[in-house]
Amino acid sequence: MEIERPDGRSPNQLRPLACSRSVLHRAHGSASWAQGDTKVVAAIYGPKSGTRKNENPEKASIEVVWKPKTGQIGKAEREYEMILKRTLESICIRSIYPNTTTSVIVQVIHDDGALLPCAINAACAALVDAGIPLRHLAVAICCSVADDGYIFLDPNKQEEEKMKAFSYLVFPNSNVSVLPERSSQEGGEPTAHGIITSVTHGAMSVDDYLHCLERGRAVSARLSEFLRKNLEPKSSSESSRAG
Amino acid sequence: MKAGKLRFSKPNKYWVESSQKRYVPHPEDSVLGIVVDSRSDNFLVDIKGPSLAFLPVLAFEGGTRRNIPKFEVGTLIYVRVVKANPGMNPELSCTDATGKGGEFGALKEGFMFECSTGLSRTLLSSPTCPVLEALGKKLSFEIAIGLNGRVWVNSASPSTTIIVSNAIMNSESLSGAQQRIMVEKLLQKIQ
């Protein structure tokens, strides 16, 4: 039985995605990512020399600043910063520029549910725009579990508040091989089954969590497609002026 | 691993070309640096890379301890990258590989602006980039292009400098024919 969501989407349907790169002139790399009404802009500065205290000087370090739309910076923002930092550290190749710091500034333009996945996607697109060497890309998705065990993808703010629990999942993007036969093969590459980050809110059973993982992984292929298409250089409209 | 266009040149060379605002130092690149500090044995120079570069005080043509050049903080210099090992500060020099000074050294007067590394590579490619060719036919100016995304333009009158800089900044996303048309339109405005 199909359960109707307030905005008429099916349980597996994502909100319309929009991504643009090089939106800021002064930042070394920037991207804006919108999922429905949730919109986030990420800016990257660096790599710059010098690390902060308590950071390993043999690796490049990433510093994240999260700027909410309104209000003072509090514990929730610090938590987002920490999650984003750990996620980005795992996709960057940190041994290339030792003793440098890359700053990631995330500005929330509008929050309509699934804010952290939106920010992670924006930060990943901004890292590519800035030319920071990456191991692979990351795609993030939010899966929410309703009281009756039904799983909805990409909830908006109203749905998030009504749900029993929701989880943010970040997967590495799938490999695309030049040979068409290899792309459709299952297994083989370890990254095809990896997961980078998982954050859950609320109580859900183990089965529900595993279902969320499955659904999230299935949808991550679509998100990877979209991200990959967006990262192709647009030959006629790209202009990167440095300030 | 960066995102970029896959390029091919016969017989068997493939590479990925990308364009960024920051520069990754590479030996034998000519870049424009800005002096940030001077120490007893080298100058600290900012070349838009992950770390500051060192320019030894003696790395000039005929450089001895007695005639060390005095570069103030903020001087723009045209230098060559000698060493760029990962994890170490890059080393620069104001002489070419044989020890001759050539055009390296401080750049006086003129105007410097920043662009992406991809645009600097296009400007330095041979045959000459269409923008520079079209500008060179009508105007006379001096230009220094650094592979780190900095360009310096100097000419007798400020209006020429402004036209050249604007033309170069606008030419990034245009094809060869479009660049020529754009330059013509700009030149018509002043005549």
TrEMBL record, chain A:
InterPro entries: ExoRNase_PH_dom1, ExoRNase_PH_dom2_sf, PNPase/RNase_PH_dom_sf, Ribosomal_Su5_D2-typ_SF, RNase_PH. Residues 13-133 form the Exoribonuclease phosphorolytic domain. Pfam families: RNase_PH. The keyword Ion transport does not apply. It is found in: Nucleus. The keyword Flavoprotein does not apply. Keywords: Exosome, Nucleus, rRNA processing. Its main location: nucleus. Belongs to the RNase PH family. This is Exosome non-catalytic core subunit rrp46. It comes from Stylosanthes scabra. The gene is RRP46_1.
UniProtKB/TrEMBL annotation, chain B:
Keywords: Cytoplasm, Exosome, Nucleus, RNA-binding, rRNA processing. The keyword RNA-binding applies. CDD domains: KH-I_Rrp40 (cd22526), S1_Rrp40 (cd05790). The keyword Hydrolase does not apply. Residues 110-158 form the K Homology domain. InterPro entries: Exosome_RNA_bind1/RRP40/RRP4, KH_dom_type_1, KH_dom_type_1_sf, NA-bd_OB-fold, RRP40_KH-I, Rrp40_S1. It is found in: Cytoplasm; Nucleus, Nucleolus. Pfam families: KH_6, RRP40_S1. Belongs to the RRP40 family. This is Ribosomal RNA-processing protein 40. It comes from Stylosanthes scabra.
